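can u do me a favor
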């Protein structure tokens, strides 16, 4: 049998399929990052980078953001639309915006504005706080500031006044009553607004968020409301302010057919608005929904997508082109809100394994003697006679023997030592069957429970609820793999659990041959550093993360390529200290410390703790308040 190679690990973990050119496994068996998306270009050895970051003071778990991947994703999206526009000789242009809700971290939004400036990329705000962020950060000339979400008078006035600063805010009417707010605020301020109308399409999306689209979607105007909106604005001489039509059929659209159907319906509405007299309309906002292939399957699986970004761009441009040619009206500029596609790839979580829960697998067990119960003799005979031609029968006999032993123990006919021996025999038999199945390359459904029994549990130093909540909330599959030791064959199968005291804090859905599997191939843990990476978590995960068990934000770092030096650390953001997390839930560090001090003084007065012990407890308590919320390696 040939030795295991790094290229076999790259194939096993499907890196080429989901990596989009940004990730590979190098000859040293380490994950390698290609920040420009060129597998033949610059490469950063991820484990070596992690080691250097730790020497800088970063702690595990850590979040690493690669700025150049962010730039490459924006450039790639712009390039796809540029290609489509050129191919169809389209008369409009692409004007992408980034929805701040997808990743609200300040450094990320700042970099999107920076990298998007050459392409005129703007920002989308769905709330008042996001509008304030966009108003401060977006200085790109002619870039759009799309104002979505629920609005009050203050929101609308702020958006209108942004025009005085040279910004181009488009106030999108998501609900009909917002028209009156816009009309009144515009009149009071003497500012002609840029108005967009959001249509509630009948077309439904495809994927996990399909319920957010269609006739019952949360936002958007019905056909009747659109007509009434046009009539109302005409009545106050503001019909020329209508510049944009917006629609959105959900996030992570997995099937291109849903995009096609929505575009067809939206263009009918666009042409209809033009014919109703809204002749100044010149912007079509197709919303978000451009998917990310998290599993590299190229299918309409909820964690995949059955189309490419270029195909998506081609379909958008083609639909707009054909509808406008038929109606003999100018084609609109195209706005996309493809936040997930922009930011998902650039961010990854690195954490260490702190232990493995694995049942012992003895090569043999002391033979049964005359004093052992008959059920133990039967189990031993089953184990000794396991062979490729009787696997099913042997497994059934093992299961029956284990259950019978448990019943006998409950009734008092088998002592604790006998119960323990029955469990060891059952486990040894399962290991033997599992080894034969592995050699045969077969996994019949009847052995599903056996596979679960033989699965190791790897304990990871992270919080799933903080760092990848979608894995828990919507069963999102993220690429997970070891970032080193990839020149060794991963001989164990396991699931990963986090530090929280919650049974849901586990990863048990992984990529396998473009689909999903219940276990991940991993290496035996030898007690040393074993680092795992979770990839493609740049969209939504940080901002949706919660403080389950009071595990806070991780340390985070922004890394950029830097010529001959290889890379440079541009931003380093320390994760939450315990005292900061406690403050989120209204605990005051000083009050807690003082209450513990008083309790210690009382214990000393009662002789229950020595002076030295009290000093050590005080130090540990105060140190604990200042510490990282995650575990640290003190070996």
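np, heres the sequence
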């Amino acid at each position: 049998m040939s030795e295991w190679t790094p290229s076999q690990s790259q194939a096993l973990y499907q890196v080429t399929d989901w990596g989009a050119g940004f990730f590979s496994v190098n000859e040293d068996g380490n994950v390698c990052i290609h920040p420009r998306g060129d597998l033949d270009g610059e490469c950063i050895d991820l484990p070596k980078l992690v080691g250097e970051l730790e020497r800088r003071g970063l702690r595990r778990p850590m979040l690493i953001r690669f700025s150049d991947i962010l730039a490459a994703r924006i450039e790639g999206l712009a390039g796809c639309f540029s290609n489509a526009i050129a191919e169809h000789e389209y008369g409009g242009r692409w004007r992408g915006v980034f929805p701040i809700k997808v990743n609200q971290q300040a450094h990320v939004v700042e970099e999107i504005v920076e990298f998007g400036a050459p392409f005129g990329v703007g920002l989308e705000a769905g709330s008042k706080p996001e509008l304030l962020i966009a108003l401060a950060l977006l200085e790109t000339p002619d870039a759009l500031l799309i104002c979505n979400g629920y609005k009050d008078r203050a929101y609308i006035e702020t958006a209108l006044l942004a025009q005085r600063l040279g910004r181009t805010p488009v106030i999108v009417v998501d609900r009909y009553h917002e028209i009156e707010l816009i009309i009144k605020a515009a009149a009071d301020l003497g500012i002609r607004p840029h108005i967009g109308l959001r249509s509630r399409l009948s077309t439904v999306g495809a994927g996990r968020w399909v319920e957010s689209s269609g006739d019952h979607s949360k936002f958007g105007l019905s056909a009747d409301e659109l007509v009434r909106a046009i009539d109302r604005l005409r009545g106050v001489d503001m019909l020329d302010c209508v510049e944009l039509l917006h629609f959105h059929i959900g996030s992570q659209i997995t099937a291109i057919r849903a995009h096609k159907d929505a575009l067809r319906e939206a263009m009918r509405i666009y042409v209809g608005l033009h014919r109703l007299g809204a002749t100044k309309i010149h912007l079509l906002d197709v919303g978000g929904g451009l998917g990310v292939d998290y599993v590299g399957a190229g299918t309409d699986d909820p964690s995949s997508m059955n189309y490419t970004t270029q195909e998506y761009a081609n379909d958008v441009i083609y639909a707009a082109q054909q509808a406008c040619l038929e109606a003999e009206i100018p084609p609109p500029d195209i706005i996309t809100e493809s936040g997930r596609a922009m930011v998902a790839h650039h961010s990854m979580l690195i954490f260490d394994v702190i232990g493995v829960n694995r049942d012992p697998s003895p090569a043999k067990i002391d033979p049964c003697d005359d004093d052992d119960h008959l059920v133990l003799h039967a189990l031993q005979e089953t184990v000794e006679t396991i062979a490729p031609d009787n696997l099913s029968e042997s497994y059934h006999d093992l299961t029956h023997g284990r259950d019978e032993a448990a019943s006998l123990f409950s009734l008092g006919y088998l002592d604790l030592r006998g119960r323990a021996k029955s469990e060891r025999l059952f486990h040894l038999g399962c290991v033997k069957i599992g080894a034969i199945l592995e050699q045969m390359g077969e996994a019949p459904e009847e052995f599903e429970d056996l596979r679960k029994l033989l699965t190791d549990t790897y304990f990871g130093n992270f919080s799933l609820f903080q760092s990848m909540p979608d894995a828990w909330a919507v069963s999102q599959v993220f690429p997970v793999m070891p970032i080193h030791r990839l020149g060794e064959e991963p001989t164990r199968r396991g699931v990963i659990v986090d530090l929280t005291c919650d049974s849901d804090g586990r990863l048990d859905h992984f990529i396998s041959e473009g689909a999903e599997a219940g276990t991940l191939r991993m290496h035996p843990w030898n007690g040393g550093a074993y680092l795992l990476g979770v990839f493609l978590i740049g969209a939504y995960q940080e901002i949706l993360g919660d403080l389950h068990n009071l595990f806070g934000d991780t340390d985070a770092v922004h890394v950029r390529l830097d010529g001959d030096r290889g890379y440079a650390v541009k931003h380093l953001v320390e994760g939450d200290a315990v005292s900061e997390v406690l403050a989120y839930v209204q605990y005051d560090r000083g009050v807690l410390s003082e209450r513990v001090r008083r309790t210690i003084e009382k214990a000393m007065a009662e002789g229950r703790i020595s002076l030295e012990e009290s000093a050590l407890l005080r130090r540990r308590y105060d140190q604990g308040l200042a510490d990282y919320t995650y575990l640290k390696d003190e070996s």
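The radius of gyration is 30 Å. hope that helps!!
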